[in-house]
Each structure stands twice: as C-alpha cells, then as structure tokens.
Amino acid sequence: MSFNVELKSVARHYGPVRAVDDVSFSAGTGEVIALVGHNGAGKTTLIKLMLGLARPTAGSVAVLGQNPAAGDASVRRRLGYLPENVSFNPALTGRETLRFYVRLKGGRPKEEDALLERLGLAHAADRRVGTYSKGMRQRLGLAQAMIGTPAVLLLDEPTTGLDPELRQQFYGIVRQMGAAGATVLLCSHALNELEGNAGRVVIMNEGRKIADGSLDELRHIAQLPTKIRLKTAEDGTRRLREWMGEPAGLRQINGHIVEFDATPEAKAAFLRRAAGEGAPFVDLDMVPPGLDELYAHFLAGRILR
Amino acid sequence: MNTILLLAAKEVREGLRNRWVLAATGLLAALALTLAFLGSAPTGTVGAGALDVVVISLASLTIFIVPLIALLISHDAIVGEIDRGTMTLLLSYPVRRSQVLLGKFLGHIAILAFATCVGYGLAAVALLATGKAIGGGSWTAFVAMTASSVLVGAVFVAIGYLVSALVRDRGTAGGIAIGVWLVFVILYDMALLGLLVADQGRFVGDGVLDALLLFNPTDAYRLLNLAGSDDIAAASGMAGVVQNAALGPAVLLAALAAWIVAPMALAAAAFSRREL
Ligand SMILES: Nc1ncnc2c1ncn2[C@@H]1O[C@H](COP(=O)(O)OP(=O)(O)O)[C@@H](O)[C@H]1O
Ligand SMILES: [Mg+2]
Fold first, then answer.
1. Which of A156, B20, B103, B183 makes the best surface tag, with the fewest CB within 10 Å?
2. Host domain of residue B13
3. Is B276 within 8 Å of chain A by CB?
4. Which residues contact B28 (CB under 8 A, 6 or more apart)?
5. Is residue B85 within 8 Å of residue A85, measured between CB atoms?
6. Stretches in chain A below the pLDDT threshold 50
7. Domain total in chain B
8. Residue of B nearest to A150 (CA)
C-alpha cells in the first residue's frame, strides 16, 4: 500500500533546538489527521518538511511518492497548503488574489469564482483583501489551498481566530475534502473541536510524536475514566449515595447532583445496575474523557507508544 | 516562461495599486520637466542644441534618482515577502525560486521603464512644444540616454535583490540599500577624485582609472551618455575624458550588463539556499 504522505524517522534540528525529532508516520487517501501539540511542539516545522521548505536533518520525507524538496511541479500541483497566519497583499481584491493562484497552479479557468462561491466570499470578491475580516482572510486562504482539488491538504492552525460557526463550516469542508479522497493534515492546539472532525490524532510534544491513533483508540490506551453525573429529585442524593454504597471519590455538586469518575469496567458495571428497577436518580450524563485530559495524560509520559 | 510572466504581471499590478508606479513616474516627470525648462532658456546662444542640454541634465538626474527608486522597490522584494509570510505560500506552488526572482525582476523593470520613458518623454515633448529645432543626432542621444537609464535602474534592482536575499530583516535591508546608494552615487566618486588628486598621476594610470570607472555602474552610465557623442561631450565638459578613455560604448554596456547578471546570480544563489 502506498501512502500520500510518508515520514521515516524524520528530524529537523535548528542548532540545539530539536524542532522535529525522530518522527515517523504515514497518511493514506481520505484520512483526516490532526497534528496536536502546544506552541513550539514542531507542528509547523513538520508541515514545512512535507512542503520541502525545510530540509530534514535526518530521515526521509515522501509526499505523493516524491521527495518534496525536489520541488517537482506535478507533485506541487496536487498539494494544497494553508499557512499559519496566512496573509495576502491588501491592495488586491479577493478575486484577483485567487485568480493569480489559480493560474500559478494551472487550475481550471474561472475556478476562482467557483471557490469564492463555495466559501461564501462571492459577495466580497471585488473588495480589496485589506478590508476583509480575519475570518474572510482565512476562508480566502482555504480557497487557495483547495485549487485543483488537491490530493494532499496541509492546513496549519486553520481555525485560529474563527468564530464557532465558521469553525463548523470549515470542518464541514475539510470532511468533504477527506470524503473525496484527499489526505488532510491539520495542525491545532484547540483540542475540543477535533471531536468528530479528525479521524486520527497525532500528538506532538517537543518535536517528538508521543501518541498516534483515533480518538477512541487513544482513549482506550489511556484508560481514562468517564465522568458520570447523576441527578436526583430535590434532596435525594443521600438515598442515592446509600444505594451506591458510598463509593470513594464521589463528588457532591449540589443538593441534587453528584458526580464520579468511572474506569471503563466500573462504568459497565454501574450501567448494568442502574438499568434495573428502583435506581434512585432521575437523569444521567456521561462525559467521555476529552482531548484535553487525553493530551495531559500522554504528556505526563505514562504511556509512550 | 508563463509562470515568470504571471509573477511579473502581479508585481506590476501591485505597483499600480499601491501607487509606486504613479509616484515614480510623477517624480521623474516633475524633475525632468523642471530641468528641461531651466536648461532650455539660456542655451539658444551657446553652441549645443536644446535637446543635448536636456540629455546632459537628465543623465545627471538619472544618476541620483533612478538608483534610489530602483533600490526602494527592490530591497524589500524577498525579505519582505518572507517576513509577511507570503513567500512560504508562493513557494508551496509549482514555482521555482529562480522564477520568482526573474518574475519580480521583469515586473520591477517594467515599472521603472514606464516611469522613465513617460517622465523623460514628457520633457522632450515639452521641448518640442517650445518650437526649437532639434537635430537627428540629438534624438539618438536622447533615446540612448533614456534606454541606458532603464539599464542603470535594472542594475540597482538586481543589487537590491541581492541585499534582500541576504539579510534577516526588512529594516536591515532598507539601511543597506541606502548605504549602497550613498556609496555608488556619492562616496565612490568623491573617493576616486580624492585619489586622483593625491596621486598626481604617479601610480594611477589610464588603465587603472578605466577599471575603477567600470567598478561603479553609475560611472559607466555617465561615460556612456556624457562622452558618447562629440557634441554632448563638448557641452558637458567631458571631452578630456573621452580622448583618454579606452572605454567605448560596447565595453560600457558590457559592464552594465555584468552589473545586472552578477548580482542577480548571487541573489539567486543566496535565495535558493535560504530556508523559510
Ligand atoms: N527557522 C527556525 N530557526 C530556529 N528555530 C526554529 C525555526 N523554526 C522553528 N524553530 C523552533 O522549532 C521549534 C518548533 O517550532 P514550530 O514547528 O513552529 O512549532 P509549532 O508550530 O508546533 O508551534 C520551536 O522551538 C521553534 O522556536
Ligand atoms: Mg506553528
């Protein structure tokens, strides 16, 4: 099986700084992968390595079967890139800007109009980019990355500065691109928004890959507890606690809400019992471990995979 | 080739939009017209033709202003785009770095050529409007002067790219650009003059002097235009130099061409090694 992106023991050092250190992973068609990590974790450097803009200190990078540093035009034409903090010449209009990139990439004639339409910028197409809001500039950035329906899409912190609605639109488009067969790699340090949007998460820390898998797999590996929150009738928590046998770690939130953390086994056992007659609560919420907890867990180095 | 033209067209469009073209053309036109009117008033009684005088004064104007404009538009070309982050995006496209450099070069030269031709052309038209008789030789000198002014502009655009490809930040590029202008337009000639006076012809022979003149593109330009035709040489006081100099127009043009090719090649090398 050949991968669209394949990194083998790649390192990129800047003097003493190990921006990327011994990272290997591969990404196939249709995969939407989130690169997650704090600032300085090496996400941008990793993307620059895939673009051929940074040269590896060690290891090898292959994008669409080629070394990206060779600058092969046929590979570049099938690659879309949205830089972190994308910027355009403020004096040109959105349409002029996009048309330039369409021609540069040998895109279809009038492709810029279709993309402006698709990203909801048609109404502002003939306004100077200098008058655009941050969200509009970001959408223009995504539009240029989508020229020619790329096979590999590299998006560096695409959602910073976007409001929640735009974020959802953004991920909608990303999922469509993935469904159409593109390999999408996107950097983020906003973890909560990846739920349901990224099929796979690669966690980076100080240049190293510390975890790699689907959200479910990672949760399973981490064995993080699920938070269960129970709601009773007014002043019913005493009876509930007795029914549960006063478990350690139970937190009383207020007069009618309690909460506790359950390991996967404890969770199953509890749910079987709770399904029976006479369980003294009226409502139940389960909060699976979020990416923040997951991230903290892997960062603490308890499991290195 | 298509890619280079596309990049050049973008440079021109940006130049038009942010008023660089307007500013450069306006400045050159205003100065050229002023010189044309100041210069054409008293010359009726002296031997030189009206346009010859204008050629001489515009050539001096070129030496001061054209390198300045060229450096202003070129010093930011690479380091500025890297700083703003637009270069990373551009280089993720199917574009080679040499194409980026050549595209920018063509675009910037087009802007300079437009500004120079319009600015100086207006001066010539104004002179025609005053009804003075102008000989064919004068026209040739005028056209040659205008064309070589663009050539000198190209030299300093290339030098500006070299600076831009080498330095880490935009402020440094600006500072060095001003320094380059000061050296080639003012300091070099002052130092050369000082050397000749101090030397009194003991060590610096004609051969050395020729070489030293070729080492400054503005001097090569000066010789090309002021010593190029006998009439102009006489009127500009360069007749003495013409007789001594072994520097024909071909050598001078070759020197200017070398002054374009060498900095461009070095800029391309520096840019290609640079990591973003
Ligand atoms: N060109 C460079 N020169 C020196 N250090 C660099 C360079 N690029 C990145 N770094 C360093 O490498 C580390 C990783 O940076 P980066 O990849 O930008 O992280 P991220 O995108 O995850 O925030 C940081 O410590 C950064 O300072
Ligand atoms: Mg980054």
1. B183
2. 2-273
3. yes
4. B61, B65, B66, B69, B115, B116, B118, B119, B120
5. yes
6. 302-305
7. 1
8. B93
